Amino acid sequence: MTSFSKHLTFRWADLDPNFHVRHSVYYDCAAQHRMEILDSLGLNLKVFQKMHFGPVLFREECVFRKEITQGDSVYIHTTVAKMRADASRWSIAHEFRTEDNLLCATLTVDGAWMDTKLRKLIDPVPEIAVNALLSIPKSEDFIVS
């Protein structure tokens, strides 16, 4: 799988009363991984503050396939699933997979870039953001919208 990947570990506090990873932890892991990826591509908080823009989400959805428990070895794999040609809108997919590549969950976000001064979508998208999205591997069913 061509993607940004990271091994995940889960804490006792990440579990629900059924002893599997609670639903909101998936969202937290995905958000953290997206920000780590952007940071590795030069889009960190200092850049966002200096250039007065940042990512904004319109939709976030997780489809759960198999429960994850505290001792499981799980990886998050992140790809761009859909993007406009100008990178103004995009969808990012996060797959949570076991060490044996069994799919546990797929979390998808739809987003864009927001001007943090004007509080509206930025136009045009800064080149650094376009280049970052172009650098992230695409999903097998990638769509240019």
Tell me how many strands there are.
Answer: 7
Q: Provide the gyration radius in Å.
A: 16 Å
Helix and strand element order: EHHEEEEEHE
Query: Which structural category do the helix and sheet elements fall into?
Result: alpha+beta
Low-confidence segments, given as residue ranges, are none
Q: What order do the helices and strands come in, and which of them pair?
A:
Blueprint: E1 4-8, H1 23-40, H2 45-51, E2 53-64, E3 74-83, E4 89-98, E5 103-115, E6 120-121, H3 127-135, E7 138-144
Structural account:
The protein has helices at residues 23-40, 45-51, 127-135; strands spanning 4-8, 53-64, 74-83, 89-98, 103-115, 120-121, 138-144. Helices cover 23% and strands 41% of the residues. It is built from three helices and seven strands. The protein is globular. With 145 residues, it is of the alpha+beta class. The longest helix is centred in the N-terminal third of the chain and has 18 residues, at 23-40. Strands 1, 2, 3, 4, 5, 6 and 7 form a seven-stranded mixed beta sheet that branches. This is Acyl-CoA thioesterase. It is an enzyme of class 3 (hydrolase).
